[in-house]
Amino acid sequence: MAMATRTKVVAKRSKKYLEEALYSRLFREGISPQSVRQQLEGFLKSRKRVFKWEVGVSIRKLRAHKRFYPALKLSEVMAKRGMNPTVSDQAIRLDLVAKSRGISSAEEHFINLPEPAKNHLTYGALLNCYCKELETEKAEALMEKMKELRFASRPMAYNSLMTLYSKTNQPGKVPGIIQEMKANDVMPDCFTYNVWMRSLAAMNEISGVERVIEEMKRDGRVAADWTTYSNLASIYVDAGMFQKAEGALKELEKRNARHDVVAYQFLITLYGRTGNIVEVYRIWRALKLAHPKMANVSYLNMIQVLVNLKDLPGAEACFKEWENKCSTYDIRVANALIRAYINEGMLDKAEVIKKRAKMRGGRLNAKTWEIFMNYYLKEGDMKMAHWCADRAIKKGRSHGRIWLPPLEATSAIMTYFEGKKDVVAAEKFIELLQIVQKDLGAEVFETLIKVYAAAGKKSPGIRRRLKMENVVVSEEMEKLLETISME
């Protein structure tokens, strides 16, 4: 109702304002970084006005799509234009600073906040940043400060700290945090119980996990939602307790009254992991009934599950259905079937999908070429493996991402150049790798030394080059280095 009212307000506003809702403008041409950036720049240059609620909704949507820098720019520019941020806005901006410019910039931003803005929200945002960056000492020190200031009266801060301990392989610290919450009368939420269960599962205490569920039921203050049971089912699957996992999945279904797409995807994935293909198809039908217009990611998930269940005909049928319905050709979906064909040795079929994807407007990405590279490496066709690696690196760069072949693949390709005695090709490959990542490590340069030695060629300045790269070779390689060095 509130959104409908706001839509009417947008329709009635004067020419000084943007003619459409800001979030609609930003995603007018899709969610790619380039299109979002262009739309944002166009809006900012127009100097058109918008309502504050639109800015808030736009930032929330940008964050959901991981467009952190545009979200930060929008937040900062609108503040400079006189749109006063709330305390909640300040906390969100701090999080965006961390994600866009790094943790040190977030710390500086926090220090420069006006004192009234340094409350439980901004402290909590900084704590969350430390926890995500796995800065244990800083997180623990900040948590102590929050306790002194009485800013740790809600579960979010404790949840962040427990998540940090789980990620840093310290699950044994989580039960102590739970006890502290109980002692300080901090009411847990569903996330608290989920992290608690996961920590116990990490210590192989499945009976402890079950006691947590029972305690949650007895307490009654926090109602278990579908995430609670997806978490429980996943724990049972990891433990190989498939019958109990399916019982938890039935509970998950009961709690998915709102027909959440993500819940359906968890059901499909987890039933797939139990090997129950009948239930996988049943949930798939239920998902299509609840959401006739499905997102690409739902097809991607289903195809991956069917491939893992060795149901290649089912995956092919699902892919064909997606191709007939999709409005944008998502290369991730094509890659899922390409990988399935490659794993079965069906190179011709994989090539057909690749060509069809290009014809349909799908942008082949680094992952596409990595799949083919791995096939050729396995087959020993090093010429094609090198070509695919070259394409993958360049595609990664063109999409604004970093992709490097695994060290094993790089070594295999360099060994190929060694056999061919091709110093020029080896140097070009190293040059390409360094465009993406400056520090390649000693092992890569040791393979380059071997190429020079095999070719019987000298490398003037090789020692100086290694020194500049901070590379120290092994004693064995040092002897080989003497044969190619002219220094």
Automatic annotation (TrEMBL):
Mapped PPR repeat ranges: 119-153, 154-188, 189-223
Any one GO MF annotation of this record: mRNA binding
Gene3D superfamilies listed in its UniProt record: Tetratricopeptide repeat domain
Record keywords, A-Z: Repeat
Domain of life: Eukaryota
InterPro entries to which the protein is assigned, alphabetical: PPR_rpt, TPR-like_helical_dom_sf
Family note: Belongs to the PPR family. P subfamily.
Official protein name in the record: Pentatricopeptide repeat-containing protein
